[in-house]
Structure prediction request, 878 residues.
Amino acid sequence: MTETENKTGTDSKAKQDSSQGRSSSFDSYVSKKEVFSLVRGKYKVFPNLPLTLLDMPNAKAYQAEDIAAPEHKIFALACKPELPVRKDHIKARSGVKADGLLPLVDAGVAFWQPAGQKTMILLYEMPLGGRVVTSKAYGKIQPDEENEKITKWIKPLLLGISNLSVRGLTHRNICPENLFYMDAEKTSVVWGDCISSPPGYDQSVVFETIETSMCQQDGKGNGSTSDDLYAFGVTLICLGCGYNPVEHLSAEELLEMKIYKGSYATLIGEERVPLALIELYRGLLADNVEQRWDISSTTLWADGRRLTPVQPKIIKSSQRPFLFNNVEYFSYRTLAYAFSKNWDIAAEVIRSEKFLSWLERGFDDKNTADAIKKSIDMALVNFSTKEKQDDYFIARTCMLLDPSAPLRMRDCSFLPDALGTVLAMSVNDDKKTKTLIGLIATGYVESWYELHKDIVSGQIIKEMQLKLQKPGLGMGIERLLYDLNEGFPCQSPLIVKDYVDEIRDLLSALDEFAKRIHPDADPIDRHIAAFISSRFGKKVSEELLWLNSSKENVVIQGVLSIFSVLQKTFGPERLYALASWVGGKVAPVINSYHNMEKRKQLEKNLPKVVRKGFFPDIYSFLDNKQERLRDINYFEQAKREYAKLSEEIEFLTGNREQRNEESLILGNKVAAIISFGIAVLTMFFLLLMQLLKG
Amino acid sequence: MPENENARKTKKSKDSILTTGFAFLILFPMMYLMLPTVIFLFLAMLPTIVALVIDAGSKSKLKYKWLCVGGLNFSGALPFLFRLWFGNNTWSGAVEMFLNNACFIIVYLTAFVGFLLYRSVPPVVLSFLETADQRRVIALREAQTKLVAKWGNVVAADVADAKIPSVSSPTAGNPSSSSDIKTQ
Prediction:
């Protein structure tokens, strides 16, 4: 009885403890839910409730809630503010369900407490089955049976790539770690996020083609669907094997092996691959882009039609080796790669007759040898210092030897397609930015496109060069930064923490900035001007020119006019703090009126207008066209009048002798007139008297 | 060309001789008919003739002396001339009237008054005009001050070495030129 009682007592105590524990954890959960960020006014994202299993390499996952539909299971990815997100994906995929892809519910900018600033938050539908691969040793995931493998894995994932391809997009983050089961039963598999970081940024070298493997992390560019299909092939191998077969190799070793042996041979190596899949792997892992299978070929294979196996193209190689840095090279690509990795010793070798004769005799390629000679001559003409001359012809030689490789210049190595991303990632590094300016301005990027016979892109680069040459606000490298990165937020120190990626949010952010601190800075700096110019340039092109005027009043008029147009177009209706900030700087505009009374009147009434916080009113108050014209006309009239008065004063006070002489002449004339007047009067009186007598 | 000019000059001198000759032809008989008047006026107007001679000989531009003296000299002579015309209008009567009575004193005194007029009126006119000029300058400067007060110092920008009148205005700055102002 006692035992029972005790047991009961213990049970009840345990129950009490457990219910207390549950209630305290529930309380803690509730309290964690009290802190949230609101995205687009529709979604709550809870920074205290992380979902580490859904984290991306550069974006942490958190619990989120759709306010209108709490049963809708979603999660949020908080992007790193310094990384450019892929705005084209957000525009094309928000709210759109596409098979084979993790559905993007929405995306928006919100203040993110952990980052201490605003950032882009991506809201995805919750993959109920979780991540496919949760650790490095994930084991064999795909079934052995070919049909099941095709229907449950290959077809849905191929559909995901295809759905992006039809929208003109690429995924570029295709790897086993980025696969999710959409349903709790783990039957539906989809590709995960690719928006939170630049294309290929999180992608390991193993999933990249040889060309993109040579690029720096941010220099891979959007690429093409062909790059996605290559990564798809590698992913299928990894899933089939249950591990990464080349895990033990470093990035450098892997790339070198891919170059020497080809991707297929490198990745398959000693692995046992199902016979039916060899054809698919060969097709997807072909290093030659023209040979690589496209979506239709892969779909045909998945539908059961067997295609002719891809025979790798034999890379042209020389019978005789070329010795560079104590290594023997037989092909262009390997040597070009070696030059790019040993930049400082490459110049002497390229200049040597031995190298040029190797090209001519080993490959019978007089054209390339001549082009390299021409590059050396051009470098001597175009650049003054030896270092720059060397840089130029090494870069050109690498391009000529391996045209499909990225643009290489010392530490830089990127595909011109990724120029915008590289620029965005270098924005806070002056040295890198200067190097990029040099690459654009001195024609390296243009040369790359020339070799690819891409006239349109070459023309775009020429336009960029023109923009770089203009030093004013709204131009220069900042303009290129925003032209090339659609979703990159404005990097002005004033509003960088507000993550302004849309022009419509600019004024609100500036208003917030003005509220936080009493600003002394100019409201439009180089970044803001370039941002406006890039996103809204056509409508305020003339006003942007005013910003570069040497006259202070014209600059302020430009600022007022631009803000006025922006507020009229995008709102908000009231910008009290910003209006007050700009209002404190309008003295030059007031002083540009000539009429002092008008100035006094403007000064008197300005605070009233500024307090409205509406820029169109402030602008029209300070810069009324009719008032301006009247002021100018009357001022010109006053100037003429003043000059006339001055002339008269000068006449009256200037040459006194002449004036005295004139006065004396007048005096003499007066005397003569008086004298003759008396004579005439005398005659008149005498005649009158005679008549009266007579 | 020189031939033409010579011909023109010759023609001018011929015309002048003809005109003078014609004038003498008319005046000479008239002078003979009015001999007492001519004698009287010659004697009475002697100061004017002297002044005319002096003016003619002077290098000064101001040749008004004979006009001032002449006007009053003539008005002094006129009452006696009337007496001659309506009295003993003979050449002896004319000489007698001029010499015997106080006539010549009066006539020459009026000529002297004319001379005094010549000496005193120009300085008076000069000082009057100077005063008027000064007043005008003050008025003009006031007008300029008003313009500066209304438009600022820039209104005088086009006037070289302008002495800008000081204006006590709190906002009298240096506005930009009209070309720097943008209007939409």
User: Anything to note?
Assistant: Residues 34-164 of chain B form one domain.
